[in-house]
Structures are given as structure tokens and as C-alpha cells.
Design a protein that fits this description.
- This protein is α+β, with helices and mostly antiparallel strands.
- The protein contains 7 helices and 8 strands.
- The protein has an 8-stranded mixed sheet.
- Strand 3 and strand 4 form a beta hairpin.
- The protein starts with a helix and ends in an 8-residue tail after the last helix.
Amino acid sequence: MSNAKARRRTRAAIVEFGVRMQAERLAYWTSGNLSVRVAGEPDVIATSPTAMPYDLVEPDDVPLVRLDGTVVGGGRSPTSELPLHTLIYQRRPEVNAIVHTHSPAALAMAGLDWTLPPFLTGLVEATGGGVTCAPYARPGSAELADAVNDALADRGCCFLRHHGLLAIGGTLALAFRAATVTEGAADAYLRARAVGDVDDLPTEEIHWVAEGWRAQWTGEEITARA
């Protein structure tokens, strides 16, 4: 695939998943952001534009940015959270996509500084286990990238204290799955906690189910566990 074709496809994917993010109420108005590496150009990402509703974004609006922050294409400025994205990509070469949401249940978990335990098989398969909350750091700062390091260790998702949710993946579809499944699981957990205690899956089951999530980093074919 030529660089031009790969860039077009990547920018179109940002439009597609931005609309999905809005449709699933994972972000409101212009909140949240997402990015993905360009195939064949690991030092170039496409990212959602800043201050633009997702249903109005066209492929030509989508910025193309090198990991040093240099904009190399697109009709709009990149998201204000660009440093968070580029630093994660620099540190994690296996990560090919990032989805950052401001969805209701995730915002509640982030505001409470709660961990979402591994209590559902679908959650574990989408994220690798429980979802913890990274300490607060100012949005758009390098400190925020530092804060998510531990929370994303062997995990596909974390909450951002006082802020929202961040998901990573080997593909944009897998990062989006981690974000949307975590939102659903967080909503279920908050409802369940209002009734009583919530038990984790047994440890051996967590490890077994999580093999499906780990497969994206190894290229193995593993049947869905959930």
C-alpha cells in the first residue's frame, strides 16, 4: 500500500470511529479524542482535530502528525491532548491506537478514584483485567503521560483521575472495544455496588480469559473467551 493510500485510510478510520464514539455516547460535543498510527509509517499518526464535533469531521480535516509533534497534513489542528498520544506511542511501539473518552460511568469512576475490578468476562477479554485509575495530571501535559504508565501496565485501559478514560490497542477497533466495553462494565458495576458486594472472577479464570486480549500483542489466534 502506498503512503498516500495508507494515510487516506487512516484518516477515514478516525472519522468512522469518531462518529461511533459520539453515537455510543462515549464523548459529548468535542470532548475526548482518538488517534492511530499510519500503516507503514510508525512515526506518523492520524488524530482527531481539536474543537470540532465528530459528526462534522471529514477525512481532509484529520491532522497527520509525526511523533515529534510536527503536523504533516490535515486541514485542522490536532487535539490538545496530542502530547499524551505521542508520548505513549514513543514509549510503547506495540501500541497502534489510542481512544480517550468522557463517558458517564467512566467519569464517575474517575471522579471517585475507583478501580473497576475484573468481575465480568467481557471486561477482562477487552482490557486484560481490572481497570485502575491513574493519578491526576493536567490535561495535555507530559505529566499525564507519565501518570498513565503504571495504570496501563499489562492493561488495555485506565481511568484518568478527574478526567475520563484512556484505552490502547494493537488496532483502532481493539482500542475502541476496550473503551466501550469498559464503559458498559463500569455502568454495571456502579449499579451492582448500589445493591451489594461485587465479586471478582477467580484468578485462574481472569488469566484464561485475558489470553484473548494478550493475543493482539503477540499475533496469536485465540478464540474469544467471553
